[in-house]
Write a structure and sequence with these properties.
about 550 residues; mainly alpha
């Protein structure tokens, strides 16, 4: 017993400073975090209720060999996409924060914009451009190329989701790089460690929480994506769930959704294991902006790398959309700028970003600053909504609204609530990585001067994690801009967004008509990204 107490005291000393005692979290913080976590579990309760109504049929479905095959394909896609996203996002984040690459703020905007392209649009673009008889084949036809290799199946799904998902990792890593103490690298260089050794032995280990948080988001997004995998004919759990919903077998669909939730829990456990328990904050001294590293002879290869990623992830979709638009105008299709839908998208996405960041803050702060099983469980529970297909979350909220909160049905408040359930982990991951880089002794010093915990949170902690709050808000904003199933099912009557306008045209095969709102979606999102980068620039000063 004495040994156990000494270990607890040692851990508290590491977290709050030698000789300090960990304060108790305020009751209001527990109440807020518990309320947020409880509401995040509403889709899970809905799935359990629906599954119980399926009887023995659900076991017949789960135990089929085809279900095991779908599970294997889903895991393969999740692992491959997550690894590729980290490989792309890590150098992009470093180049746009720490290097002297020309136009690095512009590259920061361009490399983030693929996040706003809906996956069903990305799937159509990949098929139209890289398919066996797509635009690329037409360009190569004079050279004798009659047919390109098949893009359907795993290759197409992997390429599409990777190009649309890597910004999740890039955002969290960028925020961590902004907060990384330059003195750590300077000390390593003064000890004779080269630039490469400093990156792998000092910088990269301190980015571990951010990489884990971004990789978790990329994995969960891949798990719940439907548009790309359906268009590219790669059967995953999400596709199987949608097929069950189309056949009105909602109980069976709920059972498969529970399996999807179990797979998400497995991914969460893996992320916890890779996160580590190291210390990621500076030991003392005043914070400084990150130092800029001259690229020298690597400048042109770095520009080529950024250009290639932007060309594939952003320029290619925009070119195909522009081609569709030009063909439509030439065929007499009217050119309509849907400013009303654009205003609605910006308005609802901005509201969702603010509300989601506010909801994620108490849960994440409790999990990081007050270590324990209950706080960790509360935080992990908020990730389930992000792993579930949007239609599952939307139907769950429709069920509860119709039966228990009728006045909320088809209101803007219920739609915002759905966005919070779906995208809260996007904000929580960025806030977590920011908190881990803030020395708890700063908060302890404020408390020793007589400030109450809530005053410390608002007056000390929040200004220090501003970059994490901005990164999380930007992620939620961009992801909400393209959200489709929840918007279709829960939005008020007559409330149209750019995403629903795109879907309405694409579902009827009016690709030229879909090009206008899709291009407007990218333009409106770039405005939000420019504001985010401007805030980063203010922080740099």
């Amino acid at each position: 017993m004495a040994i156990a107490r000494s270990k607890v005291g040692f851990l508290k000393g590491k977290l709050w400073g030698r000789g300090a005692s960990a304060p108790r979290p305020p009751a209001l913080l527990w109440l807020a975090a518990g309320a947020v976590a409880a509401t995040m579990l509403l889709p899970l309760a809905y799935m359990v209720v629906r599954t119980l109504g399926a009887g023995s049929e659900i076991w017949d479905l789960i135990l089929r060999p085809r279900t095991a095959a779908i599970l294997g394909r889903t895991i393969l896609l999740v692992v491959a996409v997550t690894a590729a996203c980290i490989a792309l996002a890590l150098p992009l984040a470093w180049l746009t924060v720490r290097s002297d690459i020309p136009g690095r703020r512009l590259w920061a905007i361009l490399t983030a914009l693929p996040l706003v392209i809906p996956s069903f649009v990305g799937g159509y673009v990949v098929v139209a451009a890289l398919g066996p008889r797509g635009l690329l084949q037409q360009l190569l036809a004079p050279l004798g190329v009659e047919r390109l290799p098949e893009i359907y199946g795993f290759p197409g799904a992997f390429l599409t989701i990777t190009l649309l998902t890597y910004p999740y990792v890039m955002f969290t890593v960028r925020g961590a790089l902004w907060r990384l103490d330059p003195a750590l690298e300077e000390t390593a260089r003064s000890l004779g460690i080269g630039a490469r050794g400093t990156f792998f032995r000092v910088t990269l280990p301190h980015l571990r929480p951010a990489i884990a948080a971004g990789g978790l988001l990329a994995a969960l997004y891949t798990l719940h994506d439907f548009g790309a995998v359906s268009l590219l004919r790669y059967e995953t759990f999400t596709w199987a769930i949608y097929i069950q919903y189309e056949t009105a077998a909602r109980s069976l669909a709920a059972g498969l959704s529970l399996l999807l939730a179990a797979l998400a829990l497995l991914i969460l456990l893996v992320e916890v294991g890779t996160r580590g328990r190291g210390r990621y904050y500076r030991g003392g001294g005043s914070p400084r902006p990150p130092s800029i590293v001259p690229l020298g002879r690597w400048r042109w290869p770095a520009l080529a790398f950024c250009g290639l990623v932007v060309a594939l992830a952003l320029a290619l979709p925009l070119s195909v959309l522009g081609y569709w638009l030009a063909r439509g105008i030439a065929a007499g299709e009217p050119f309509r700028l849907m400013w009303g839908a654009a205003v609605n998208s910006l308005y609802v996405s901005g509201l969702a970003a603010m509300v989601t960041v506010a909801a994620a803050l108490p849960v994440t702060f409790l999990a990081v600053r007050f270590l324990g099983r209950v706080s960790a469980l509360l935080e992990r529970s908020t990730y389930l909504g992000f792993a579930l297909p949007g239609i599952v979350v939307a139907l769950a909220l429709v069920f509860f609204a119709v039966n228990y909160a009728r006045p909320l049905y088809q209101t803007l408040g219920l739609l915002i609530f759905a966005y919070v359930v779906l995208f809260l982990p996007a904000a929580g991951g960025s806030i977590r990585s920011a908190l881990l880089q803030i020395n708890p002794s700063l908060e302890e010093a404020a408390r020793s001067l007589g400030r109450r915990p809530l005053r410390v949170l608002t007056g000390v902690t929040l200004p220090l994690v501003r970059s994490g709050l901005l990164a999380g808000g930007a992620l939620v904003f961009l992801t909400t801009m393209k959200e489709l199933p929840a918007t279709l099912l829960l939005s008020p009557t007559g409330f149209k967004t750019l995403a629903t306008s795109i879907w309405g045209s694409v579902s009827e095969a009016f690709f030229a008509r879909a090009a206008t709102p899709a291009l407007l979606l990218v333009l409106a999102s770039s405005l939000g990204m420019a504001i985010f980068i401007f805030q980063e620039r203010r922080q740099e000063r």
